[in-house]
Amino acid sequence: MPTNDTQPSSNFIRQIINQDLEENKNNGKVATRFPPEPNGYLHIGHAKSICLNFGIAAEYNGACNLRFDDTNPEKESVEYMESIKRDVHWLGFEWTELRHASDYFEQLYDYALQLIRQGKAYVDSLSAEQIRQYRGTLTEPGKASPDRNRSIEENLDLFKRMRNGEFADGQYVLRAKIDMASPNINMRDPALYRIRRAHHQRTGNDWCLYPMYDYSHCISDALEGITHSLCTLEFEDHRPLYDWVLDELDTPCHPQQIEFARLQLEYTIVSKRKLNQLVTEKHVNGWDDPRMPTLAGLRRAGVTPKAIRDFCERIGVTKQNSWIEMSVLEYCIREDLNDNSPRAMAVLHPLRVVIDNYPEDQTEYLEISNHPQRPELGKRAVPFAKVVLIEQDDFAEMPPPKFKRLITGGEVRLRGSYVIKCNEVIKDADGNIIELRCSYDLDTLGRNPEGRKVKGVIHWVSEQHSKPAELRLYDRLFTVPNPDNEENFLDVLNPDSLEVLTGCRVEASLADARPESRYQFERTGYFCFDAIDSVDGKLVFNRTVTLRDTWEKGTAL
Ligand code: ATP
Ligand code: MG
User: Fold this and answer.
1) Cα–Cα nearest to 192, from 118, 252, 120, 103
2) Which of 137, 216, 225, 543 to pair with 417, CA 20 to 30 A apart?
3) CATH code of the domain containing 171
4) Is the CB of 62 under 6 A from ligand 1?
5) What DSSP character marks residue 158?
6) Which of 411, 444, 462 is a domain's end point?
7) To test the ligand 1 pocket, which listed residue (13, 49, 317) has its Cβ within 8 A of the most ligand atoms?
8) Which tens digit of pLDDT belongs to each residue from 393-438?
9) Ligand 1 in reach of 341 Cβ (< 6 A)
């Protein structure tokens, strides 16, 4: 996989901008915007758009606004707006200006009056259902509404009365007067305004009339002096409407809409509607559940903003829709965490090891160092004492071939510590192993025993010094690569997407873990401290990603 960490790779959008700059279009200015609708949390797909819009602005010394596309009050909330601002900042970007489509409600209304005066818009009394029927199909032209030739005066009067609240919701709509026979259905007199008595979080009850996306978006872009309006491919067929509105009206400028392929990531979904359903039906624990592809979820899982930015750079920007493998994202996450996360030891399924020849009340602080490139991330003093805990599966009574770890009568090295030998296995009445009795070799600290080959190295913690912890092992949310293709995406939820391990033990130093600090737990994976759920002395860690790709083709579930 090609990497290019410093220089953003070129793409067709940058080529268009370079060309525009050469021709001194827009007076050499570059202005973009990221226009989320505040009806849910941002997801990894939005990250692609954020990195593109803010990245281009930064690269060309231009501007990038964060604009809330808040024209659909019933579905929008302050919580969503706050989360969006938080997530954009977290990803590492700062907007030039914070705007809202609702800032322009008055101007949008005036522009609508202008269209009516130009004979380019009319008030229609057809119901939503009738409008659908009149619209025609891909093969048949649409049919004109009886109201299409209403006089300009009457249209002006009705539209003003729509605003004044004289009509019921749905009684009238304002439509653009374009072409009912257009091969592009979006151009068959699309709705511009509808009556909706809904409380708006910013404009309160001032309006009972709300503009449609295709109408408000292009004008908002023009009012903000956006030069390049970047959006996803499904808006390609809306571009003629975008241009029509701006051509008909006398707006400050006419931004260029450019479409790119939306991010589709395997084993997850990036539709806010479906993500919302997962949250409201409690298939996950909220928008920031670490299994969610939301930025809040990825963050809580321990994914770094840098890993997401690298991912967006790596997948590039094109006009071809394609599915990106989850392993690409995981690769970026591992790269960053491998380089930058401190090492620690955690035992997931503890097995007690008593070292019979070790002094009863002694504690040694062993200097452990296991990040050769960045010693400061690996170096620490780890307490060692008579009773240590190891992973249950690092011991085998009946070892499979090539088993290099501890066996009865065999030796193994405790990472950064001594070589121990297992002398006896203690079992309960049912035959379950409850502890191992071992001995240690004082001469083996930091060097290999002479004449004996000890191949295995296992991790451990001191029973007395380690802290109890809950480790949450997260896995993919879906069992199939393209859950969107299923009749019901809920049918392919992965029932094993979360395994909660209680009774784990972690290095004592982790008791002071700071919120969101990330670690590589040796041999087990990358984990992030969950300060929110770590209450009453319980330490909770979320697994960000395994150390290696365990989902390589053929090994899935
Ligand atoms: P969703 O389908 O999740 O509801 P949306 O397009 O309705 O997405 P918006 O809040 O309108 O969500 O999106 C804000 C911006 O993010 C838009 O410019 C949109 O094109 C872009 N965006 C949304 N999803 C993706 C994606 N999967 N890949 C790239 N860009 C995306
Ligand atoms: Mg949208």
Assistant:
1) 120
2) 543
3) 3.40.50.620
4) no
5) H
6) 462
7) 49
8) 999 999 999 999 999 999 999 999 999 999 999 999 999 999 999 9
9) no
